[in-house]
Design brief:
With 457 residues, this protein is of the alpha+beta class. The chain has two domains: 2-114 and 141-220 and 412-455, 3-Layer(bba) Sandwich (FAD/NAD(P)-binding domain); 226-407, no CATH class. Helix content is 31%, strand content 26%. It has helices at residues 11-23, 91-107, 119-131, 145-161, 207-216, 236-246, 314-329, 337-342, 348-352, 374-390, 440-455, and strands spanning 2-7, 29-33, 74-76, 114-115, 135-137, 141-143, 165-168, 172-178, 181-187, 192-200, 221-222, 226-235, 250-254, 261-268, 272-278, 281-287, 296-305, 333-336, 364-365, 400-407, 412-413, 427-429. Strands 5-13-14-17-12-20-18-19 form an eight-stranded mixed beta sheet. Strands 1, 2, 7, 8, 9, 10 and 22 form a seven-stranded mixed beta sheet that branches. It has a three-stranded antiparallel beta sheet with strand order 3-6-4. Helix 1 (11-23) runs parallel beside helix 11 (440-455) and helix 2 (91-107) crosses helix 11. The longest helix has 17 residues, at 91-107.
Length: 457
C-alpha cells in the first residue's frame, strides 16, 4: 500500500514526486512510467536510421522526462504562456509556483541566462509586430538546450531513486475506483497498485488513454481547442533579429479570412526539425541544442479551433489529419511555400534546388494542401505573410513547411481548484495530458501544487 501513486514521469509527475519527497519524506510513493530511464532513452532516427521505424514506444516521447526530455528545454517564466493554471488559482499564486519550480530547475543544473528580460528591446519588437497585426506576448525564457535538459532530468532521477519507488517500462491500464474514491491503478501486466492518493500525469502521449479512462469512470471532461498546423523551417538569419534578443517570439495572429487564432510555438534558433511517433502516427516537432547548431531556424504555426457540441473527439480529429499526411508521404510531408502557392507538389528536385537544406532528411516532398483543411491552410498562409512584415524572408518561396504538427491535448478534465477530479475523491489530474498545461514550466508547477494539496491533508 502506497500513500501516493503517480502515473507519468514527465515534468508534472517528477515535480509532484520531488515536492512530496520534501514535505513527506516518510511517505511511500510509487511513480509508474511506460518508457525507459533517462539514460536508456534513445531515438533510432537520431542515431542514423533513414526512416522512423515507428517504435511501439517512441523514444522521443516516452520515458523519464516525458516529451520534453529531448526538446530544447525552454522554461517560459510567465503565466501568460503554457497553460491554464490561472483558471484554478490566482495569477499571483501561479507566479509564485513558477518562481519556485524555476529555482528547482536551477538547483538541479539549469543555466542561469534568461532571454527576453530587456523591456526596452521587447517594446520595440512589440511595436513592429503590432504594425503587422501581430500580438507579441512577453515571455521571458530560460533555455537549457537538449543536452543540459537531459543532465537536469538525470539529476532529478538520481535524487528520487533514493526517495521513492520508480517503475519503468510498465503502463497504467486502468484506475481502481470504489465508492467514488480512487484506490489505485491496475498495470498493463495485471498487477494492482493500491494507494491512498493517485496523481494522473500521462503527458500528451497518454492523453488519449486519460480521456477514455476518465470517460469510463464518468469523470467530467470539457473540450479543449484543437491545435493543428505545420512546422516552418527557414534560414536562421531571417529570424535572427528576433531570436538574438528574445530567443523565442510568442506571436499571435487572427486571420482576416476566418478570424482563427494562429500562433507561433516552440521556436528553435539554429535547430533541427524532428519526427515523433504518437501510437503509430508520425508527427513533426523541433529541437535546438546548447552546443550543436544548424544554419536553420524552425517553429510551429498552430491554428486553434474550439469545437462545440456534439464534437467530443479533439484527439481523434488531430490524429485523422496527421494520418492523412502519413498516408500520402509514408511519414512526414515537406513542401516549399512557393510550391504550395503555385498549387503544385514539391519534388526532391525542387527541394534540392532550394537555398535551404532540410534538417529532417527523411521527410517526403509532397503537397500539404491535400492534407490540411482549407480553413487552417488559409490561416497559415495569412500568418506567414504577416510574419514576413517583421521578419522579411519568412514568406520566401524556399521556406519549408513540414506536416503535420498537432498537439494532442486531452479534453480538459473537470477539476476543482486543487486539481482534484470532480466526482472521484483523492484523484488528481495534472500536466499537458489532462489539458491543464501546455509546456514544461506550468506542467512542473501543477505537480508542485497537487503535491502540496495532498501533503496538507
Amino acid at each position: 500500500m502506497y500513500n501516493v501513486a503517480i502515473v507519468g514521469a514527465g515534468p508534472a509527475g517528477i515535480f509532484a514526486a520531488l515536492e512530496i519527497a520534501k514535505l513527506r519524506p516518510e511517505w511511500k510513493v510509487v511513480l509508474v512510467e511506460k518508457g525507459d530511464r533517462i539514460e536508456k532513452r534513445k531515438c533510432l532516427l537520431r542515431e542514423g536510421f533513414e526512416k522512423c521505424p515507428t517504435c511501439k514506444k517512441c523514444g522521443l516521447l516516452c520515458g523519464w522526462g516525458g516529451a520534453g526530455a529531448f526538446s530544447d528545454g525552454k522554461l517560459t517564466l510567465t503565466p501568460d504562456v503554457g497553460g491554464h493554471l490561472d483558471d484554478y488559482m490566482s495569477r499571483e499564486k501561479v507566479e509564485d509556483l513558477i518562481d519556485y519550480v524555476d529555482k528547482l530547475y536551477l538547483k538541479y543544473g539549469a543555466t542561469e541566462e534568461v532571454f527576453g528580460t530587456d523591456m526596452k528591446v521587447f517594446r520595440e519588437i512589440e511595436r513592429q509586430a503590432s504594425l503587422a497585426e501581430l500580438k507579441l506576448v512577453h515571455s521571458p525564457v530560460r533555455h537549457l538546450g537538449t543536452e543540459r535538459s537531459l543532465d537536469v532530468l538525470k539529476n532529478m532521477q538520481d535524487f528520487l531513486d533514493e526517495k521513492i519507488t520508480i517503475r519503468n517500462d510498465v503502463s497504467a491500464r486502468s484506475l481502481i475506483v470504489e465508492c467514488e474514491q480512487v484506490k489505485g491503478i491496475v498495470l498493463d501486466n495485471g498487477e494492482e497498485i493500491r494507494s491512498e492518493y493517485t496523481i494522473i500525469a500521462p503527458g500528451r502521449e497518454g492523453a488519449d488513454w486519460l480521456t477514455k479512462e476518465f470517460g469510463k469512470n464518468k469523470i467530467g471532461m470539457v473540450n479543449n481547442a484543437v491545435d493543428v498546423g505545420v512546422r516552418v523551417e527557414l534560414p536562421a538569419p531571417v529570424f535572427e533579429p528576433l531570436t538574438s534578443k528574445l530567443y523565442e517570439s510568442k506571436l499571435i495572429y487572427h486571420s482576416p479570412t476566418f478570424g482563427d487564432e494562429v500562433r507561433t510555438f516552440c521556436m528553435n534558433p539554429n535547430g533541427e526539425v524532428v519526427q515523433e511517433n504518437y501510437n503509430g502516427i508520425s508527427t513533426v516537432n523541433g529541437h535546438s541544442y546548447a552546443e550543436k547548431t544548424t544554419n536553420n531556424t524552425n517553429f510551429a504555426l498552430l491554428v486553434s479551433e474550439k469545437f462545440t457540441e456534439p464534437f467530443k473527439e479533439p484527439i481523434q480529429y488531430g490524429q485523422h489529419i496527421a494520418s492523412l499526411a502519413n498516408m500520402l508521404g509514408g511519414g512526414i510531408l515537406v513542401q516549399r511555400f512557393g510550391d504550395l502557392l503555385d498549387g503544385r507538389r514539391s519534388t526532391p528536385e525542387r527541394i534540392k534546388a532550394s537555398i535551404l537544406t532540410p534538417t529532417l532528411t527523411c521527410a517526403t516532398p509532397g503537397d500539404l494542401s491535400l492534407v490540411i483543411p482549407y480553413r487552417q491552410m488559409t490561416s497559415i498562409i495569412e500568418m506567414l505573410y504577416a510574419l514576413d512584415k517583421i521578419a522579411p524572408g519568412t514568406a520566401s518561396r524556399y521556406t519549408l513547411l513540414y506536416g503535420i504538427e498537432v498537439k494532442f491535448y486531452s479534453a480538459r478534465v473537470k477539476l476543482t481548484d486543487e486539481l482534484e477530479t470532480e466526482g472521484v475523491k483523492n484523484l488528481f489530474a495534472i500536466g499537458d495530458g489532462a489539458g491543464v498545461t501546455r509546456g514544461l514550466i506550468q506542467a512542473s508547477a501543477s505537480g508542485v501544487h497537487v503535491a502540496r494539496v495532498i501533503c496538507s491533508r
